[in-house]
Specification:
About 85% of the residues lie in helices and about 0% in strands. It is built from five helices and no strands. α2 runs antiparallel to α4 and α4 packs antiparallel against α5.
Length: about 90
């Protein structure tokens, strides 16, 4: 679903797709807040906390880009930083 929305937005600049993408990104941001409330209930959950945080950070950056339709230098730097964090957490 997310990939289809992104493809639709990229190819047609469909504003409805953009709204749905932002809504999904906002859900991912909210999910991290909920995750933080339950992470201590299971030791396995603690191990995926960095992934949840990365998804939240990337989602916030993408929301900012989509809402302003402008990529700031700081957005680009944030995305690179978040990518490197994901890569490090997989090693």
């Amino acid at each position: 679903m997310f990939n289809n929305l992104v493809n639709s937005y990229i190819t047609t600049n469909n504003k409805e797709s953009k709204k749905k993408i932002v809504a999904l990104l906002q859900v991912w941001v909210s999910n991290h807040q909920l995750f933080m409330e339950i992470k201590n209930t299971n030791h396995i959950l603690k191990s995926v906390e960095p992934l949840s945080l990365n998804l939240t950070d990337i989602s916030k950056t993408l929301i900012s880009i989509l809402e302003t339709e402008n990529i700031k230098t700081s957005n680009g730097q944030n995305i690179v930083f978040q990518f490197l964090r994901i890569k490090e957490s997989r090693c």
